[in-house]
Amino acid sequence: MLIDRALGEITKKNKVVVGFDLGNDYSQLSYCRQNQSMPDTVSLVMGEEQYNIPTVLCRKNDDKGGAWLIGKEALRAAEEGQGILVENLVLSAKNNARIRLGTDASAEELPAEYLLEIFVKKAFALVSAYIVSEDIAAVAYTMKDMNTDVMEMLRHITEHVGYRRMDVYFMSHEDCFFQYMIHQPQEMWIHDVLLYDYRDDGIKSCLLTMNRKTNPVACFIDTAAYPQMKIEDLEGKNEIAKGAFFRQLDSSLLEIVRKNCDQRVITSVFLLGDSFSKDWCRESLKYMCRGRRVFQGNNLFSKGACYGARERVYPSTLSSSYVYLSEDKLRANIGMTCDRGQAEVYYPILDAGTNWYEAQSIFDVMLVKNNAITLNIAPVDGRKTRVARISLEGLKVRGNKTNRVGLRFYMEDPTAVQIEITDKGFGEFFPSTGQVWKECLPLEVIT
Q1: The total number of structural domains that make up the chain
Q2: Which of 10, 175, 229, 395 falls 20 to 30 Å from 285 in CA-CA distance?
Q3: Based on C-alpha coordinates, what's the Rg of the chain?
């Protein structure tokens, strides 16, 4: 066992982790090694900051079986009539749709999952220009809207990427924001932090706050959407009309920023998206820069996913010192006290801060004293630890360490922890009764 563990540590030493921001319009990939201070982001042009990879495919019309292209190459080929453009890959996969490659009745129709797999594989091929694919130990996918069906597809797709197994994680954009910030110098987040993400449907704000009185420090992100900030199609408008529109847009943004900063101490502000420009948001920028540090870019989420994947593979003190609590995350540590020899030890089961769709623990225990399982539930908001007792009705405990039961903790949705307990017996001497007990711990009770 110790040899296997040592070999595992040697194998993963200095491996690469990847953060994959998968969007329906465009995607980004960042990567880093264990001791790398800041992740790098894959650029479509070496030496330039062209991070956005259009999430599209195009199968070329040629005699070689139709090679698949992605990103800007796919857009260019389709524009030149060399193939048919395939868009909305993520949305189609979410809807479990089939996509027709062409408008003819005889056009081929393919599952969206198959086409998404092609895109993901070719996106990973772009990373291989910077690193050896065999070095990838883990990938963290992040999406604007987390969807369990798409996540399951990505798990399956990732099994076919590269030549070795890589661990797969999932993170929301808010989680990526949190991971990115705690890996920055502390003077950037000594107080609250604001993020504005500008997309085609408007602006989404994220406000990061921390309760430094708890241990670990509990972190929260409040979000809000501002569809009124959607940029209109200005084609055909004269310069006077365009100028008036952007002055009004600047005024609207300034109102939003003032409201977000009112009665708060904001250390830093991050502006994501190419729509932010000094040419139009002058007054808003002036206000943001008063006593605050303002940053502009568009690859924060992929870098944050990269940091998050690295924390899974190479946990640092940050993992135990800070925990991000969202509606998708468990807000309490769940464990149990077990007898081990002459002493009692605490056995952790589910950790606070775990995404509900990743929360799972499976293990066996021996019942010694009675037919009950006692759980310790410790909220991370400072409230007292609670105790939950699950009675295994109908199970006779013999008292000689021959009652073995299997425990499985998992979550089917963000609202509750499911517990399944199975009598496993004790070999040929005491066969299993086949009994199964199921309990549910609602999260509103836990938190």
Answers
A1: 2
A2: 175
A3: 26
Tokens 């939950």 -> residue: 388
C-alpha span between 203 and 208 (Å, rounded): 16
Based on the fold, state whether residues 265 and 353 are members of the same structural domain.
no
Residues 192 and 274 reside in one and the same domain: yes
Dihedral sign of CA atoms 110, 116, 122, 125 in order = negative
Residue type, 125: A
- Report the alpha-carbon distance of residue 297 to residue 378 in Å, rounded: 39
H or E, element range at 19: strand 16-22
- Note whether 206 and 283 are same-domain residues: yes
Q: Report if residue 78 sits inside a domain.
A: no
363 and 432 share one domain:
yes
425 found inside a domain: yes
Tally of CB atoms within 10 A around 241: 11
Q: pTM of the predicted model, to two decimals?
A: 0.81
Whole-angstrom CA distances from 411 to 328, 355, 418 are: 11, 9, 6
Kindly state whether residues 208 and 290 are assigned to the same domain.
Answer: yes
Residue 59 within a domain:
no
Residue with tokens 């996509």: 99
Looking at residue 378, its amino acid is A
CATH of the domain at 275: 3.30.420
Tell me the residue range of the domain where 377 lies.
Answer: 332-446
Tell me the C-alpha distance between 350 and 358, whole Å.
10
Under 8 Å CB-to-CB from 340, ≥6 apart: which residues? none
Question: From first to last of its 447 residues, what are the pLDDT tens digits of the chain?
Answer: 444 444 445 445 678 999 999 999 999 999 999 888 899 999 887 777 889 999 999 998 875 567 899 999 999 999 999 999 999 999 999 999 999 887 777 778 999 999 999 999 999 999 988 887 678 999 999 999 888 889 999 999 999 887 678 899 999 999 999 999 999 999 999 999 999 999 989 999 999 999 999 888 999 999 999 999 998 887 888 889 889 999 999 999 999 999 999 889 999 999 999 899 888 999 999 999 999 999 999 999 999 999 999 999 999 999 889 989 888 888 788 999 887 777 888 999 998 888 888 888 999 988 888 888 889 888 876 678 888 889 898 888 887 778 889 999 998 887 889 999 999 888 777 888 888 999 998 866 554
Looking at the structure, do residues 293 and 393 belong to the same domain, yes or no? no
Q: Which residues pair with 140 in a beta bridge?
A: 19, 169
Pair 249, 346 in one domain: no
Extract the tokens encoding 326. 């969202």
